Amino acid sequence: MSTLSRRTFLQTSSAAAIAAALPQILHAATVTSCEFKLAVITDEISPDFDHACSVIANDFGMRHAELRTMWSKNITSMGDDDLARAEATLRKYKLQVTDIASPLFKTDFPGAPISKSSPRTDTHGASADLKEQDELLEKSIALAKRFKTDRIRCFDFWRLDDPTPYRAAVNAKLLEAANRVGKEHLILVLENEFECNTATGREAAQTLAAVQSPWLQLNWDPGNAVARGELDAFPAGWDLLPKDRIGHCHVKCAIAEPDTKAGFEWAPVGKGSPDWVGQFKALKKIKYRHAVSLETHWRGGGSPEASTRISWTGMHEALVKAGAAAPSPVPGTWPQVDITG
């Protein structure tokens, strides 16, 4: 099997590299049992929600999906007809929903300087008007009830160079939102997002300590923490987190690239940081039973679907090595990647 260079594999600079990896891409691992709820954010596979659900259920053997964008529409912007179509698709593939991956509070904080991370197209038009964010929260609550999940994902506003003057107000808004969802017996899961004010494990520990609500938990994303420069997100960042407030987990990998504008590149799961074998073992140790949801972001496989298939193979291997999942009955094959050159 040919070995692809780091830069070639991560950036997919040639069609030949994609073709070489294609036989491995098409034979993704399937899962028969796991201690966690395994899921994928569906649009990481395809904007075609039916096709994404087919891959998740039939090819990966999963029973859960995370809902963000379907048919190129954010779930919080979809009308009743599209939502009913999504419900029918989930029933068709016997999939349950882990959470509503809303863009709540992925916007500039009112009165604060405009962030260097703003604007971004993936906010789906999120407004910096807090009244409109409150309306988005109400819509997310309704969606959570409709799709029979108890979790809504949120952020804590685009990252400021110095969040200190605004941190108390941001925390107050998080507390207000958490208390609101708590009245509906739901949970707000704050994602540590590399372009938002809580980006790392260390920052997440501080935010959770400041916002003392049982209805606010963490959507732990150590890959995002690595992207922000916390190269020791696992185990050092993880060790600081209150383990009883880990409510969701995103799975992705990044590699530090100081010579690039972003300072990092996304990588296939298992070929960058964090150490997912160690992270899955740590989740097992605390008896975590919520979702671990694949959000690869990496696109070096040539297409979102092919890239997700490669990352799922690496994720499955890590789960098996961690003792959290049974081996695949038809093991997938992992493209040999040299990430040292």
Automatic annotation (TrEMBL):
Pfam family, one: AP_endonuc_2
Annotated ranges, domain Xylose isomerase-like TIM barrel: 57-307
Superkingdom, natural source: Bacteria
GO function terms (MF aspect): isomerase activity
UniProt xrefs under InterPro entries: IolE/XylAMocC-like, TAT_signal, TAT_signal_bac_arc, Xyl_isomerase-like_sf, Xyl_isomerase-like_TIM-brl
Keyword Aminoacyl-tRNA synthetase part of the UniProt annotation: no
Signal peptide: 1-28
Keywords associated with the record: Isomerase, Signal
Keyword Transcription regulation: no
Alphabetized PANTHER family for the sequence: HYDROXYPYRUVATE ISOMERASE, INOSOSE DEHYDRATASE
Name listed for the protein in its UniProt record: Sugar phosphate isomerase/epimerase family protein
Organism: Acidicapsa dinghuensis
